[in-house]
Specification:
This protein is an alpha/beta fold. Helices cover 31% and strands 27% of the residues. The chain has helices at residues 16-25, 40-45, 47-64, 80-104, 163-167, 183-194, 214-226, 319-334, 364-369, 385-390, 418-430, 435-440, 450-459; strands at 2-10, 30-34, 108-111, 113-116, 121-126, 129-141, 145-147, 160-161, 175-179, 198-203, 230-233, 236-242, 247-252, 258-263, 265-268, 272-274, 288-289, 292-293, 306-308, 349-351, 356-361, 374-380, 396-402, 408-415.
Length: 466
């Protein structure tokens, strides 16, 4: 017997489960298939548990500087097993929350691996045994992605880690090499360095956090170096030679010299590849380029009735982008009036290191390359009363405007809680706000958000507190 649905979603990450809920809200009979834990990588092995770890390192950092606040704390330390245990509990709590949401929205959950089995059919199997055959007018692929490995740098889960092993260490390494300085690499580098590990970051490009504005990247690198992190840009890890309890890395530096570095552990953070295997797409018109499924602006693939969203598709590879893609795709399928495709230029990016980094829209360089005449505003956190009171006054807010229209082209931030603040600029871009509205908006005092106001004022020669 086959089960009949309006929509079957394959994968329950932040794209898949949100899409399933929206479909159910629109009256579609919906099923979701998950091979591991509900919530996917983000809730179980990505976004959420890493933030729990980073919160621990943040509190640890504050405890080490308790004297700056007039407090006395002795024998500051940590128990690694409890640090990891807290992170896993947070992940488990949220995964159970997704399970509740599935039940609340009357979404049928199938445990197992899903595979396309002909037009409008999905076969589900677990441990090699058939579970169900599902019929659906619409099938959504939301299988996500996994860590990329490079020849000669393959992870083994013991000495050479991906993000999974980096989240659940059984012992704390004394030294660590992080290969790649995107958000994932830098977040782990920040976590381990704050807890006392000797950290070296190697980045093949000429600067860390390469998708960010160059000025912000430079400030971040200076801050990390001040914390004792060693950073090599324009460098390549050529090979890893594993010993019994350590790894010797051969690194080619920017001046083409070769040097060796021996560390206890290595974390690979060199990008992701889409989970396109074993989905049964070989006999369909679904197109794959560079391990990612090709879709149009609505999530439709080349095969009628089959859609794809999230990390399985194109960049930016972010959980919040996946969620919104899922909603847009479902609403388009359902014929909801007024649905619009996502403007990827309005998707904020966040890196939860210390100091935090966040951005939305065009960098200064990208704006110039696009032919804009620009006005740029900057405001340092050292000029903000709340940041000084918090004891966290290092960083910068930078805004980029179209000089002709006043449109906010981009915003770039490094400093305290900027991953929360960036949403203000994201809303401004969505509403197509100009400098006039931003300058006349009243920002509460004393708050970190005042830095955002001052940065806008600075772009037009009206800054107050510098």
């Amino acid at each position: 017997m086959a089960d009949n649905f309006d929509l079957v979603v394959i994968g329950s990450g932040p794209g898949g489960y949100v899409a399933a809920i929206r479909a159910a809200q629109l009256g579609m009979k919906t099923a979701i298939v998950e091979r591991e834990a509900l919530g996917g990588i983000c809730l179980n092995w990505g976004c959420i548990p890493t933030k729990a770890l980073l919160r621990t390192s943040e509190v640890f950092h504050l405890m080490q500087h308790a004297g700056d606040f007039g407090l006395s704390v002795k024998d500051v330390g940590y128990e690694l097993t409890k640090v990891v245990e807290r992170s896993r509990k947070v992940a488990g709590r949220l995964s159970n929350g997704v399970k509740f949401l599935m039940k609340k929205n009357k979404i049928t959950v199938y445990e197992g691996r899903a595979k396309l089995a002909g037009k409008g059919k999905v076969a589900v199997a677990k441990d090699g045994k058939p579970v169900a055959t599902l019929n659906a007018a619409n099938i959504m692929l939301a299988t996500g992605a996994r860590a990329r490995s490079l020849p000669g740098l393959e992870p083994d889960g013991k000495l050479v880690w991906t993000y999974r092993e980096a989240m659940v260490p059984d012992t704390m390494p004394k030294s660590l090499l992080v290969v790649g300085s995107g958000a994932i690499g830098i977040e782990f580098a920040s976590f381990y360095r704050t807890l006392g590990v000797e950290v070296t970051v190697v980045e093949v490009l000429d600067r860390i956090l390469p998708v960010e504005d160059a000025e912000i990247s430079a400030i971040a690198q200076k801050s990390f170096a001040k914390q004792g992190m060693k950073i090599q840009t324009g460098a390549t890890v050529k090979k890893l030679d594993k010993g019994k309890s350590n790894v010797m890395a051969t690194i080619e530096t920017k001046d083409k010299k070769t040097e060796s570095l021996t560390v206890d552990r290595v974390i690979l953070a060199v990008g992701i590849i889409g989970n396109v295997e074993n989905l049964g797409i070989e006999n369909t018109k679904v197109k794959v380029e560079k391990t990612h499924v090709v879709t149009d602006e609505w999530g439709a693939t080349g095969e009628p009735g089959i859609y794809a969203i999230g990390d399985l598709t194109g960049p930016p590879w972010l959980a919040h982008k996946a969620s919104h893609e899922g909603v847009v795709c479902v609403e388009k399928i359902a014929g909801v009036k007024g649905v619009h495709p996502i403007d990827k230029g309005n998707i904020p990016g966040c890196t939860y290191c210390h100091p935090q980094v966040a951005s939305v829209g065009l960098t200064e360089e990208a704006a110039k390359k696009a032919g804009y005449e620009i006005k740029v505003g900057r405001f340092p956190f050292v000029g903000n009363g709340k940041a000084i009171a918090l004891g966290d006054d290092q960083g910068l807010v930078k805004t980029v405007f179209d000089a002709k229209t006043g449109a906010l082209l981009g915003a770039h931030m490094i400093g305290p809680e900027v991953t929360e603040l960036i949403q203000g600029y994201a809303i401004a871009r969505t509403l197509e706000t100009t400098e006039a509205e931003l300058m006349t908006t009243v920002f509460p005092h004393p708050t970190l958000s005042e830095t955002m106001h001052e940065s806008v004022l600075d772009a037009y020669g009206r800054v107050i507190h510098v």
